[in-house]
Queue: 2 jobs
Job 1
Amino acid sequence: MKDNEETQILTGRQAVLEALRNRRRALYRLLISRKTEAREFERLARGLNIPVRRENSAELSRIAGHGKHQGVLLECSPLPVFSLDEILRFDPPEGRDLLVLCVGIEDPRNLGAIARCMSFLGARALLVPGKGSSPLSPSASRTSAGAMESLPIAVVPGAASACVRLKKAGYWMIGVETGGVSLCEWEDATGKIVLVLGGEDRGLGKGVRNLCDLVVSIPGCGTIGSLNVSVAAGIVLYHVTTRRARTAAGEVKTL
């Protein structure tokens, strides 16, 4: 079954488990391979009155359209999304906030990997343009190891207009792209920050780059000139997390 407006097929043990735990989607039916140990899945599904059925692995592969289901398959609605205004209604503690805006990232595996890094390193919400970006597909959620099932996600009309709106709300827009200031030189990561990540081929684009308050680059010393965008996201998110921890401990002076 292909994804459509009514039903998606979510696969992968961690993604399905997080969907059952977080209950953000409408959940229709859980299918489990006959040879798969899945007592926690069955317990959660039955507690939510979701039908559970055991099938052979080949049937799960046929329904999913691939064999990477890990023995579990959940029929469900698409992920619900927020508006940018809803994200901005949150009042961050101590005036600190960390969002990520993805611009033109078309590979769902990259989007999912970014969401996983965000969830691990404490970023609050993911922002994606409604056009020109990867859909919030089951593939993205599976790659995120279920992080997308709990991470707030907002679909914005356009990256440039979102940047303008966020700047008016007091956020610092920090672009991540080659040719910027070395990440090592960015010390003050306090306040409300949006990390802006560009697409795999086109990067941030001139319009969005010009709206950034700062563009940072990750210095390298090897023969390859760039990183996968999800790897870069993890490095920069970790940088922000550690700088904030050092600032809180009084080791870094803010401007």
Job 2
Amino acid sequence: MSRRKNVTQEDFDQCIADLQSKNNIPTVSSIVRQIGGSYTTIGNMFSKWQEENDFSFTQPGPDIPESVIRESNELLVKWWNKIQEDASISIRQIQETSAKQIAQIKSEASLLVEDLQNMERQIEELTTSHETATTALTTQHQLEVDNLKTELSGMTENRNYLKTALDEKSKEAKNSNDRYHALQKKYTDLVDKLANLKQT
């Protein structure tokens, strides 16, 4: 018999008949294993079936009243249903706790990812600022070097101009000195000639 999710009364009755035909004692567990369904649903059906069929796990003996055995069976079914209910509650609590923990872990992971992205942005901004500052310093340094080169070139041109002017002045001074000596020689010659004329 195939297992079903939603067990009907007909399914339950057929399962009981199958178990009894094989000389197996019907129990909630054996019925659930054979046709499926929840322990609560099968347990309720099984309790009703016990009452209607006056069935117990142990046939009444001479020393045990039938009412005691029936009540014992009912208590056993209730106890079993309670265990299943508690197990379902525990599983549900575990699932809820796990879901909360997973949600918290996802939230913390999301915050870590956000922090990492912020850190990467800060690193990128610092890198850009460093590159900009380096470029600015390099540009400023190059401007200063260019200015110094221009100033040095101007000073060199001035030096060359002054040297040329000095050379020209030196030449003029030499020429003037030569003319002075030539005039002085002429003057001396004239003085000598005048002296000779006076003597004659």
